[in-house]
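User: quick one, sequence for these tokens?
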């Protein structure tokens, strides 16, 4: 399978790259500074570019079967600015499947069902800026023709891969407080072949 991974230099993205290469998939990453990307593999193609540049996104999408975006907010609007470019390029290229890493803040609130967690006291985060960015992306994907899945981890320490965690469609598993980076990456990676959570947000926690 030809997989494009965006945000490949981040904590979750770099682990997804490792899982995909381990399974002998052809992986393409789009990074601003290729020198920082230390991994070498015959099945790995490193493209230099920026997710905010339409031409770079179009070039990276060519010939892909699936797209995984592990881009984070980093105090910027990169997420919400790059998603329209991705959606347009995918629809033009005929790529249907996209898996993104979101945040538990955009899952439904259990206490106020018509609200998202970040809009209520259920979320313990003081700042809602990152969740608002992810919310914009969620709305864009909902309106697209794509087969999307948004993996929504709660507190995300580096930790170890446990391989055993709880998942729930549209909600954070009850009492869930954390999930490690490797387990989040593994679950997101598995969605390239799974169809259980298409057009859904998925809460993930221990």
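Assistant:
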């Amino acid at each position: 399978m030809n997989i494009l991974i965006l945000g490949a230099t981040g904590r979750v993205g770099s682990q997804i790259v490792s899982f995909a290469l381990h399974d002998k998939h052809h992986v393409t990453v789009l990074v601003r500074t290729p020198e920082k990307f230390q991994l070498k593999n015959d099945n790995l193609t490193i493209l230099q570019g920026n997710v905010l540049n339409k031409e770079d996104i179009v070039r990276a999408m060519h010939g892909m079967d699936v797209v995984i975006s592990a881009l984070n907010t980093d105090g910027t609007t990169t997420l919400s600015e790059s998603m329209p470019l991705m959606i347009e390029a995918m629809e033009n290229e005929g790529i249907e499947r996209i898996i993104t890493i979101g945040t538990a803040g955009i899952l439904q609130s259990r206490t106020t069902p018509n609200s998202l967690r970040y809009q209520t006291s259920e979320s313990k985060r003081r700042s809602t800026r990152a969740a608002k960015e992810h919310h914009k992306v969620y709305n864009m994907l909902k309106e697209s023709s794509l087969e999307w899945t948004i993996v929504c981890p709660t507190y995300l320490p580096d930790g170890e891969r446990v391989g055993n965690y709880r998942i729930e469609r549209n909600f954070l598993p009850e009492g869930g407080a954390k999930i490690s980076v490797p387990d989040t990456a593994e679950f997101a990676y598995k969605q390239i072949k799974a169809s259980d959570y298409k057009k859904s947000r998925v809460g993930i926690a221990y």
